[in-house]
Amino acid sequence: MSGLEEIPDDVISGLEEMSTEPGSGLEELPDDVFEERQRPVRESSKIKMVAAMDFGTTYSGYAFKLIGIENHKNIYVKSWNEEAGGGCLPSENAPTCVLLEANGDFKSFGYTAEREFSECEDQKNWRFFKHFKMILHRDEGLCSKTTIKDSNGKEISARLVFTHCIKFMKDDLMKMVERKKVDTEFKTENIRWVITVPAIWEEPAKQFMREAAREAGIEGDNLLLALEPEAASIYVKEMNVEVHTDMNQSRLSAFSPKTKYMIVDLGGGTVDVTVREVLPDRSLKEITKASGGAWGGLHVNQRFYQFIEDLVGNKLMEKFREQHPAAQLDLEREIEQKKRNLTGDEQNRILINLPGELIELFEKTKGKSLSDFATSSGRYREKLEMKFEKLRMSLDVTMDMFKPAVDSILRHVEELVSDPLTKGLKNIILVGGFSDCKIIQKAMREKFKDFRVVIPQEAGLAVLQGAVLFGENPLIVSERVSPFTYGTRQLRYFLDGDPPEYRTEIDGAPFCKNVFNVLARSGQTFRVGQRVTTEVSPVKPNQTVMPVNVYQSNNPDQMYVDDDCREIGTMIVDMPDTTGGLDRIVDVSLAFGDTELHVTGRDRSSKEKVSMQRRGRKYKSRWTKKVGLKQLLATQENPRSLIQELEMRVRMLALQRETAESDTLHAIAGEQQRKFFTVWMSRSNPFNEIEDTGTESDNLITRQKLTQFSYDKDVSWDELITNAPRIKKYTQFMEESASALRQLEYSALQTTEEADTANGEVLNS
Fold first, then answer.
1. Mean pLDDT value across residues 544-558
2. Which of its termini does the chain have fewer beta carbons within 10 Å around, N or C?
3. For 522-538, what is the HEC assignment?
4. Using an 8 Å Cβ cutoff, are 6 and 491 in contact?
5. Structurally, how many domains does the chain consist of?
């Protein structure tokens, strides 16, 4: 028999998620937080413009292309010279930074945000954010409540910051289109938006970006997410571009069929690597799954900055940042410029211009010159020289700043070129802002002498322009490699060799729970739109809902749902027709080949179809289609004990109902449930004792909503059980549930002897 684990083990997990602290799972989780895109992207025939945003860790920009409009066949790329005030810019894009007012309202973006923040008299009244994109790469518990800190250390909603950035670029792009005086009216459905994301991002991070775009005014079926190295590979394949090879400039022609090439996207935060092959129809096939790591140029900048901070002292550097924000900005730009264009003097030393304000502050605070101190103290004293405001470092000191990132990149690329799948690979193409770095270029050429290492002349814009081309023709990539092993958790008969801790019995027969049912393996190739379907069946004949949890793992041979797995989504499939008993089937389908994963579940008898609700690592419960009592009380004063009692009792009553084996006990458990809510609604509780702070009408509406909240008439037991909070460890849940129940003192609630017996059997199971 194929099927999911029984309700107590499969649906309920993670008692630690029931914390009532602010920001915990007891607070509301909007229904749209992890909403799966269920409709396809707009048909290409309706598209009149493709607009792309390269949302980078350190720099961002946008471009667009008009479709089917004469005299407008080029890709228009935003120039940031005016905002930057002219001069030599470190990047073709703008700094990914945003300035908000104290209340979170948008003020400015990019160069303008940097300038306004550095010039404001009281920075504590403003909220400045920079280099915040990496939170999506690192945060395993990513959700709508994820926060980031501004330059003053104050937290704010991460999604709000991302939304402000996307909205600014969207609105500014539309102004740019207007300036082109295009004699065409663009409606919402005529624009296809593309936002770039690192290929090594997982599904929750992609969905987070999609939701931020939705809040910025970009609807889901108007949006594509483009993988950054893939976008660059499209640009390189399609365009005849100027390239640098071994310090010589030549042309790189559009690749012919059967050509394999590697794209190394060297960004500010991450490095993404992909290997592609041009197919006979000139579409692209992914050869190896996207890979990489957090080895981007920003980490080199941070090492340079840390070197200077170690030289002058942490406290002095902090004072410098507070007192001289404009000079701090100049120092950051100086480090960025030197990182990209390192050239030594006649003695092969690297020169960095230090701000005069930093030198003056050091001498005033320490009572000695920074020049004398730098050349007489510290482990680098014999390799440093300082004259006026110029700090000269020997080349080996500079190389120490690059070594961790360079070594990681070289090691990773070496692993890929040694893979039999990449046999025949000749071209290694470096793109992204970090590819301008001379040290990276030299290291790659010396390490991979048997390959043609090339750098497009506009390497920093390759991802952005490739994203436009991808938006124009999403099917230009016809085959992709699954980055993970995907599957569902199922129940099957217990076999020799199965872990004994996964053994359970149903009607006297031994079963194995936590079985990982593989739908796709890591490294497996799929055509765009290809579907893989598996069948799951209920474990009980009267089951009316089927919870389906979807997991991912790095292991291509994953056998069980264990600590090596990550839950990425869940579905609740209604199965109202129970006449088929255990023979009913739900088809779970995964559509592969897109830049995002799409999972659906379909009951064969009712034909009802639902899509996966995406999750991060942490599961958040929600009360579907009902006014959530947690939501109503979460903002009230001291509702914690009330919520704890309510949640614990509901879980245990649901468990009693599910494990009770007779209709009599079912009815008793149901009566307990009705009594509990009736008594709870009438008893003196913290909510009723709260002093009214809103208007009379608001309080009346709130109380009306409370009285509408009940399970006895509108919500079936199956819905109650389905939406119960998840518990990762069943044993831990039982122990803590029993302890909590002993502490409850509801004089109005009388538990029948039969239900107590059922509850005891559950606790002892």
1. 87
2. C
3. CCCEEECCCEEEEEECC
4. yes
5. 3
- Specify the DSSP element, H or E, that contains 653: helix 640-659
Give the dihedral sign, CA 22/25/27/31: positive
Total count of residues recorded for the chain: 765
pLDDT tens digits, residue range 308-363? 888 888 899 999 988 888 888 889 888 888 888 776 555 667 888 899 999 999 98
pLDDT in tens, 505-514: 877 889 898 8
Position 387 confidence tier, pLDDT thresholds 50, 70, 90: confident
Contact present, 261 and 422 (Cβ < 8 Å): no
For 637-655, b/e burial (b = at least 16 CB within 10 A) is: eebeebbbbbbbbbbbbbb
Give yes or no: residues 593 and 634 share one domain. no
Structural domain harbouring 327: 297-401
* Lowest-pLDDT choice from 110-119, 177-186, 222-231, 722-731: 722-731
What pairing do the DSSP bridges indicate for beta strands 76-77 and 155-157?
unpaired
188: closest CA among 42, 67, 35, 38?
42
The answer to the question of residue 89 being in a domain is no
- Which of 614, 642, 661 terminates a domain? The answer is 614
Q: How far apart are CA 488 and CA 10, in angstroms?
A: 11
- Residue 613 confidence (pLDDT): 61
What is the distance between the alpha carbons of residues 309 and 316, in angstroms, rounded to a whole number?
Answer: 8
Give the pairing of strands 248-252 and 241-245: antiparallel
Q: Which amino acid is at 540?
A: K
The model's pTM: 0.70
What beta strand segments (E) does 604-741 contain? 609-611, 613-614
- 721's CB contacts (< 8 A; 6+ apart) are 7, 11, 545, 654, 657, 658
